[in-house]
């Protein structure tokens, strides 16, 4: 390697290391001392909202027999969907290469 290439390589290494140190210091300062809003400290706390129902249809608060049956059927349909996807992936992974013909 020529002398010029070595110098350029060292400059790049120094810039990358300096950038990494700068990023680390900036990230640690933000984590240690977040900015505070004194006006927000004097306000009353906002009420905590209830958690929304998940999009998969399984609610943790419905403990009735019908609710549990509905959740079980949702889980069964999701599991069968996974099995179908898994079969498709396995078929694609074990696919044999086709010999190409020359023209």
Give a description of the structure.
This protein is an all-alpha fold. Among the domains are: about 1-30; about 60-90. Helices cover about 60% and strands about 0% of the residues. It is built from three helices and no strands. The protein has helices spanning about 5-30, 40, 65-95. The longest helix has 30 residues, at about 5-30. The two termini are about 45 Å apart. The relative contact order is 0.04. The mean pLDDT is about 75.
- By secondary-structure content and strand pairing, the structural class works out as mainly alpha
**Overall geometry:** flat
Number of helices: 3
- Reading the helices and strands in chain order gives HHH
Contiguous uncertain segments of 5+ residues: none
Largest sheet: none
- Cα distance spanning the termini: 46 Å
User: Mean pLDDT, rounded to whole units?
Assistant: 77
- In total, the number of strands is 0
Binned strand content:
under 5%
| Radius of gyration over all CA atoms, rounded | 29 Å
Helix % is: 55-70%
